[in-house]
Structures are given as C-alpha cells and as structure tokens.
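Sequence only, no structure available. Ideas?
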Amino acid sequence: MSVAVRTGAGIAALAFALVASAVFALGWGMIAVPAEEVVAALVGGGDPGNAQIVRELRLPRVVTAIVAGCALGIGGVLMQALFRNPMADAWSLGLTAGGQLGVALLVTAAAFAGPAAIGFLRNFEGVSITFGAMLGIGVFALAMASLARRVGTVTLLVVGLMLGFTVQGIVSVVIHFANRVGGRVFSGWNDGNFASVTASDLPMLITPVLIGIALALFNAKGLTALLLGETYAKSLGTDVPRLRRLTLATVVLLVAPVTAYCGPVTFIGLIVPHFARAIAGTARVLPLMPLAALAGALLALAADLVVHAPWEQHFLHLNAVLALVGAPVVIALLIVSPTMRGQR
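Reply:
I predicted one. Tokens follow.
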C-alpha cells in the first residue's frame, strides 16, 4: 500500500474517531447530555439547560483539547525531525521548563508583595498565570534561538535537556518560598488542565497555533531532507542554520500558547509522531503532520474524558492520565521499534 493511500486512510479514520469523541465528550460528565441534544445545542436549539452546559462549559474545553493536541503533535514531529532523535519533543528545548519557571517566579513574587498581590493572583489566576508562562517561554526561546546560531543540532538538544533538568531544581527551590495560595495556583497549572480556557481565550490560543502550522508546512520539505543529514540537505540547497531557526520559532508558536493556557502538557508530543510514522509507513514530514495533529487531538481529548468522567471525587489530573498512557507506550516503543533502537 502506498504512502498516500495509507496516509489518506489514516486521516479519514482518525478524523472520524475525533469527531465521534468530541460529540461524546460534549455529553460526558456529571450531567449526561444525549447525543441528539448535543447536536441540537451546537446548531442553536435543544433544551436551554443542556445547551448552556454544552456550549458554555464543555465546548471551550473540548476545542482547547483538540487545538492543544494538534499543536503538540505537530511540534513533536518537527522536533524529532530537526534533531533526528525519536525521543525529542518540545521539552527538549527547555520551553516547558521556561514556562514553569515563569509561573513559579510569579506566584512567589506575589507572596512577597503582600495581600494585594495575592488577591490579584486569586482573582485573575488565568490572566496572571498565562502572562508568567509566556514570559518564561519567551525568554528561554530567545536564548535557544541565539544558541542555535553558534552550536550544532546535537549540542542544542543536550543543552535544552540539561536546562530543563536545572530549571526543575530551581522551580522546586522557588516554590518553597511561595505561600499556600501561590503553591496551589502553581500546582493546579503544572498538572495540566484544558478546562481553564474560556471562550474568550480561544482566539489567543488558536491564532499562534495556526501561524505555527503554516510555518510547519513551509519547513516540511527542508526537514525531510535534513533527516538524511546536514550534508545531504545542503546539497539540495537547504540553508540548514536558517531552517533550524525557523523550526525552533515554529515550535515556540505551537507549544508556547498551549503551555501558557493549559500548563506543561506531557507525552503527547513525544509519542504521537511514532503513531503517525507507523500509520503512514514513512518518515517524511509532510504526510506525518496531519496524522500527528489528529492523533494528538484524539489523545488529548481521550485523556480529558478520563479526567472529567463522572467520578464521585475529582482528584485525577491531566498529566497523571497522560503519564499512565505515555510512559508504557514509550517503554514499548523502546523495546519493539527498530527506529527507537536505532536499527533503521
């Protein structure tokens, strides 16, 4: 079966599963809404109570999960192609760590600033957390982009990983000095959550992601050439340093808004590209992007469904669910996949 046929069939199957899952998610929760009521609510009819639940409470969360999953899935494809490393994802650049440090510094500064700052943090938690995360991600992205001009791809990956580990320790120390309110705010954001995004937040989340997807499509041919080595890519006329900088900027556009609004969502960008390659039967970047986008959205939505199941007590967190799925998948890939073992 050709790559085009496999990719088309995979896109159709994933798209159908995603639409079905989205409709199910809109009716799933403590108050169950039948599928026909969900459809009626989406077209502006149906029972007013059900319509309010679907459109105002669940629809922004479902859209956020889909957008975040798409962005992280494509970001993972770009990172693994850029670094030619099946274990690379956005965390490898230190972007997630930058967001964590920004939020940690914000909540700790609020603790030292006094009751007024704590009140602001409590009342405008979404706005302040988003600002702190974006600031941290922006600083780290600029630092990595500057470093990309001076070092090679492998060195950049190692530096990003070491930076992430270092920042984890710094964050632990910083949060030690935060007060109880700040600690709870940071913990809630750090666990990952699609439900904190409101309808008014969606344009700010979606716009940079769409720009990032456009840039990813533009960079796809060069990244495919880069898979065969920098020398081969240069022989085809690819400006490798420029491609590296553009790809890093693209990953920032895809990952930064998701991290800022939803927290450091884990594992999607790491494991989804492997499923995309398995479906398409190729490592070429362009066919992988729609598959990774749909698979990432489906995984994000499935994890959110588990979190928002009608449990008697709500203690599950998004990253905990993703870790329970993602870690065994990575272990399985390491054991059975020739690509992960470096045999292909």
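Residues 48-83 form the longest helix (36 residues).
Hope that gets you unstuck.
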